[in-house]
Amino acid sequence: MHPTLFSFAQFKDEINPYYGAPQSIYLDHFQWENVSGPVGYKLEVPPLHPGLTSVLFMGHGESHFNDIQNLPNLSAMIALLRDGFNDDSKGGAIALASDGSVFPTSVGTNPQLSIYGMACKQATKLAENLTGKKPA
Fold it and tell me: What is the DSSP string of 44-97?
């Protein structure tokens, strides 16, 4: 798993970000620029399908509706952080709390990271059942 940061930009002209091959535009120069040192990053331009985009927008009701109305003029960019390529950049680790969440937030547990945590837990159990081996 890698942290991902995203940003939106609204343009005067239509972009129509829901057409084309998903995530076919990217720049990995900064990912490989310094593999022997700290974290690198890859820039991508993701598709903005209405369903996906509506989940990424904050808010609800009329303001959310208005944001979605501007979708044809919207574009986004994501930065995927990459690490773990060498001993100086080992990468991180995620551990589940006793309730299955990754870490608490002001509203309880972080639901998105809890989903990742649960998926990881289920994938591990599936691998154990298929191979008969416990993870190292």
Answer: EE----HHHHHHHS---HHHHHHHHHTGGGEEEEEEEEE--SBTTB--------
